[in-house]
Protein 1
Amino acid sequence: MKPTRVEAFSDGVIAILITIMVLEMKVPHGETLDALLPLLPVFLSYVLSFIYVGIYWNNHHHMLHATDKVTGPVLWANLHLLFWLSLIPFTTGWMGENHIASAPAALYGGVLLMCSIAYMILQRLIIASQGEHSVLKKAIGRDWKGKVSSVLYAVAIPAAFLSQKISIALYVFVALMWLVPDKRIERALSDWH
Amino acid sequence: MKPTRVEAFSDGVIAILITIMVLEMKVPHGETLDALLPLLPVFLSYVLSFIYVGIYWNNHHHMLHATDKVTGPVLWANLHLLFWLSLIPFTTGWMGENHIASAPAALYGGVLLMCSIAYMILQRLIIASQGEHSVLKKAIGRDWKGKVSSVLYAVAIPAAFLSQKISIALYVFVALMWLVPDKRIERALSDWH
Amino acid sequence: MKPTRVEAFSDGVIAILITIMVLEMKVPHGETLDALLPLLPVFLSYVLSFIYVGIYWNNHHHMLHATDKVTGPVLWANLHLLFWLSLIPFTTGWMGENHIASAPAALYGGVLLMCSIAYMILQRLIIASQGEHSVLKKAIGRDWKGKVSSVLYAVAIPAAFLSQKISIALYVFVALMWLVPDKRIERALSDWH
Amino acid sequence: MKPTRVEAFSDGVIAILITIMVLEMKVPHGETLDALLPLLPVFLSYVLSFIYVGIYWNNHHHMLHATDKVTGPVLWANLHLLFWLSLIPFTTGWMGENHIASAPAALYGGVLLMCSIAYMILQRLIIASQGEHSVLKKAIGRDWKGKVSSVLYAVAIPAAFLSQKISIALYVFVALMWLVPDKRIERALSDWH
């Protein structure tokens, strides 16, 4: 099986996920601008999740570009990743509708953590299938970004029950870490790690 | 007509199906973790259906890879399969919302049975279109897995009215049978058959 | 602009249309088989529309295969066709929820008529862009099927206010006419025409 | 990263957007034609948005065809454009459900303005990545259409609070400006500009 097929299917699923999330933003009944106010947390949750799904789409493609063949386990690890990604619209909706309360903020982190773990499993299976001279292994290096992200999600989950602001700050920080391609920070963090 | 076109369209439909299923998991109104509890059967139904649709996507592609040309009947047999697959989100939602009651569990099996039959019809039409030296015919052999699956679905439907646990156990068993690629079991069952 | 691009986009839209139609079949609240009974007209409407969208997908592809370049007007004629096709889920839902009452059955025919007209406009623009030796012109011949379909839809619309059964019978007849590839009938009708 | 991949993903998202907009047209409960009457503004909003998304799909492709490589900033600028496009179904639904009241008509223009700005940012980043002899730069010229559109949206937003008819007229005018490929008007406006 060639990676292009897995890529096309994953692209389809991710394109649908990023789009149906917006369906959680239910059209309000009022016709004044005030009617939009209760939607603000839903909107902000949508923005955050849109960025996260965008990051996954981006990284997923780079990973598959460094892959030459797709084995059975890789295929299922990919579906496993898509499964956790598919829960993002649900957690986004729950978080948004409850003005980013503790439990929804924790669950949001829980699903992000599972996505992150599923991504790392997929990465390892691809590397394992490529053998010693794996292109992907070289490309990701120590993968400090992936590891740091997982740790921060794991911290954000219990933190949500102290203050949701901490959790949200951590989610925003991780998203920025992937968005901003600052080589300097990257090198520094890589050295320190 | 080339198979790539049928493959792309089927991929699109399957990607949408696997994603809209999650829309049945309605965002709960409470903001505590308790609010998620009633969603547990919906979630578990979703997991099961996600795996089933994943298996169909996987097998469908392998089948089309062993196909060189698409005739009119093959095209409609493929749409017929997509039709039954498209009912999985509905039966998943009905089963989940009713805490896996008898009738929904039976209907779930009914739709799986129809998917299975539709798949076998498609397989036969492709083999028929390939003539005597059909690659697909060799590849599937006696297709014991397909036949056993159909029989187990047929058993699970009436069994749901005795105990839904039997039906669910059968659905999970069939899913595992397709997921776990144990060559030994495969050979044993193939011999026994 | 190459036709492959228009084909891919149209395929995407049609795949989504055929799939979201099933969302109109809302999960019932009861847990017995009786709870499914009120859904029967919704289900039957879905089956009919699934077949219609399948026929359009099929014909649309054959048409684009006989097309070599896509001009601006062809592009917009194609979007115009997709627009009317996109209304099929709505009319299907309205017809199904009202046990196939007169007005919904008439509107269903109205949208089918508009799809049919949009299809013929697209066909003409492609032929016009190909000039005298148009491959598509030869392939469709007198296009009696397209013309007969349009006439039958136009008959079915007012007929729905006499008896919906006539309209539904006409919609089913047109669908069968496209599904069953009987060369004899085809020739006979073509001669008579 | 090649532009085909970004094109395929964007096509997927746009195909889904154009299709889910129709879901805002909720199936009415009555079974007479009168029951459709309250849906008229929803329908007209849908028509307008369908045309807008169609125009974006069309222009987006032409732009990517004049692009040879996709850099990181271009990728994110593209996701940024898709983000604002993804809000069109929401604003369409809000405008339609409130019989095109002031605030929804203003918000509709606001989202169109953001789409327009996001499009221009994407355009600039592609041109910047191509260097001095940018093909895209030549192709768009002074981009008077893009600039005029943005100005008209900006006028339509406050105008909605005076009279929604002005705003709607402006939205329709901009859509026609992109639809009708009148070279004479184009040249005249370009000269005047």
Note: The CA atoms of residues 78 and 122 of chain B lie 6 Å apart.
Protein 2
Amino acid sequence: MTTLPRVTIWNEGRHEKTSAKVKEVYPDGIHAVIASALSAKGLDVRTATLDEPEHGLTVEVLDKTDVLVWWGHMAHNDVNDEIVNRVYERVMGGMGLIVLHSGHFSKIFKKLMGTTCNLKWREIGEKERLWVVNPGHPITAGLGEYFELPHEEMYGELFDIPTPDELIFISWFAGGDVFRSGCCFNRGMGKVFYFRPGHETLPTYYVPEVQQVIYNAALWAAPSGGPKVNFGHYPEPLEKVD
Amino acid sequence: MTTLPRVTIWNEGRHEKTSAKVKEVYPDGIHAVIASALSAKGLDVRTATLDEPEHGLTVEVLDKTDVLVWWGHMAHNDVNDEIVNRVYERVMGGMGLIVLHSGHFSKIFKKLMGTTCNLKWREIGEKERLWVVNPGHPITAGLGEYFELPHEEMYGELFDIPTPDELIFISWFAGGDVFRSGCCFNRGMGKVFYFRPGHETLPTYYVPEVQQVIYNAALWAAPSGGPKVNFGHYPEPLEKVD
Amino acid sequence: MTTLPRVTIWNEGRHEKTSAKVKEVYPDGIHAVIASALSAKGLDVRTATLDEPEHGLTVEVLDKTDVLVWWGHMAHNDVNDEIVNRVYERVMGGMGLIVLHSGHFSKIFKKLMGTTCNLKWREIGEKERLWVVNPGHPITAGLGEYFELPHEEMYGELFDIPTPDELIFISWFAGGDVFRSGCCFNRGMGKVFYFRPGHETLPTYYVPEVQQVIYNAALWAAPSGGPKVNFGHYPEPLEKVD
Amino acid sequence: MTTLPRVTIWNEGRHEKTSAKVKEVYPDGIHAVIASALSAKGLDVRTATLDEPEHGLTVEVLDKTDVLVWWGHMAHNDVNDEIVNRVYERVMGGMGLIVLHSGHFSKIFKKLMGTTCNLKWREIGEKERLWVVNPGHPITAGLGEYFELPHEEMYGELFDIPTPDELIFISWFAGGDVFRSGCCFNRGMGKVFYFRPGHETLPTYYVPEVQQVIYNAALWAAPSGGPKVNFGHYPEPLEKVD
């Protein structure tokens, strides 16, 4: 993929409508801040939200999406199964997917993981420090050895996911917990990246390192141009069988 | 786990009822042959089939099951979703699961994998040779460097599964295909092993190496006695947070 | 492997001779405490130290060793290359190896990893909490979700090792660091487990959870009875080639 | 890395001098054919051979090398240990390394793997078919589901390497063997790709798919711009320790 990926930022958008605090931090929505950051870095970005028709994820939109970024929380169950299946089939076909923070409990992430995706959590705004444990990986481009978020919601182990194909970040939390905060998964022809930070009441998505990671992940998750794969009945062997 | 695992062999059992050929090869069902082999090696074995109440997988049966072996094919869609979810929750809680052959398309396996589990196939009875590629793994105990099945259905790559946590066997097929034939996956607290061979019209489950692999996998997949894990809200940090 | 593994505990043994503090904590040596713990759990245990002939690792001793436990620090370079190669060849042939704490810089561990095995460290006796991140793994048998060491030397990321084949523990340190503290690697026919804790001036090896982990790892790392593998020239193909 | 990587193709170059057959197939050396292919695809390419001063791998050359491609065979032991260590340190620091065919037994590859890197082999010119088993990976860009080499030397399992971090190709051989033919490894900050084909008497490096794979691997293995990592003593904790 020599051209830059086309990215769609999906946001549930419910907190922005129901919480004054969230509206203050993200007046145009979490998606707007992420979209602005990726646009500034040169990507072709659009946004979509739950309350749009088909949640904004029409066939036409997905046809123009190389990488989908997903933020959701309180309305996971309001996401239509048909749309979840549509996104799932796109990932199977090669579309990249970046799942943020509370998206660990989204239908699409759980369907792709095959586990409960459960974890421990605590919301006292403690310090988080994300350590790079895979410094040769492109998702770490431009970062230092670690970066800090002065106040974040805590997610703690056990994080009930399959073993990540590549583990990029481990978080240290002031309250005594650790977390696998940046996890790569191969699913079908697609690449999936889970990135932990991003509580809705905190200005995490304005942090340059957080924006850099999402940008790097979009480049990494974009389709790679590999083979078109076929399945099913192949009655004729490639080699002569006695 | 110092005691031997209690194993339940589940078989759809439809082919045995509808195909004279299958009935000839497995007069008492595929499950009976596997059960007999594992019993002879000292395991505590029971069987269950689709047509029993609750498919034979009642809460009581699963309470006494450390490892569940699964063979299904034409009736995947007849398996009740409630039973699938029950088995899934047991795997999340630590029960081992061994999925055989056409079980790659079972509801439970697809749910645990998060991918299509699709593949190529051909049924001309060609030779299969399974090569050990992880000779330090307990699932290979007692085997040689490879073993052969003179006639098997072919399954060929791409096998659309997540990258296995451990790859044990790679199959060579006379018709020109290869296949990842023995694959270990961690899911929740449970261990899952997919083992390719076992077409219903062929006497594969009588082959000593095939029986040995299923036995080894049962020992490997049994619960390990690890921690009871808790999830959810932990409002009190383990460490004092400023 | 149905019988219990025969374990040899190797300890450099230099600190015990040169430091009054270490001698106070481990009057008979670190190896004696570990050996006593494993014996009490029923394993067949012997010890060996640097200053014995051939460092105590003669062909005869290794012939009776299923799993070798390794503690070394200041004298890594005094270990004879011939003995390192002897141990290496045993691991290639299936002997298990458990490398403890400062053994990360031993010749044998670096040779098996192929990387620098470097890390960050600090010796102020801060609190360490080891979180289980793979609760289905046999090395976690009998543990809780985490265990704590009130005072330990800190090892921090980046830990320059290859990606572990299985990651079992992640440590949280009071000073703000994290570490991959329990790491499984397959090398040749052998299994290698690196376990972080164990600074020589601290009573870490008296901690029941630490003893339990070493015991579990010995069971896990013991040879599995897999195939005898052959290499080299095979001029005759298994199948007829046109 | 937005700019294209600078690639150095290293070839032992002994077969070209000693074998009329090899000289006929590769009159200017294997390195010349690979260099020409990568240049034609737009990379900045140079070559180096064993018989040059410092084997052509001076500090100056490596300073300008993002990815090193390695072909060697009969003269593995003639490669100076100092040069091997120089290359090793570059890989630890982030330089990519692509090891071809008989390079599996090179000093640098064995040092990076930590295993014997042994395998089975046979030289009767049988058919090899390389199946893609990771179609989302960038190393498969532009390929079909498989590609064939009508005549190649056979390499067969067991290939005694650590479990690859990513497995890309599995080879089928007419004589009945299989092989993990495309293997990715992370080592230090660097990425390593082993690619099986390329016997010196056969025109394998003229095959478009083979050239495409080496090109893709060069893009993949190039340094990613991740953090500069520091190791050693950090006496001051990042957080206040009681």
Note: Residues 186 and 192 of chain C are 6 Å apart (CA to CA).
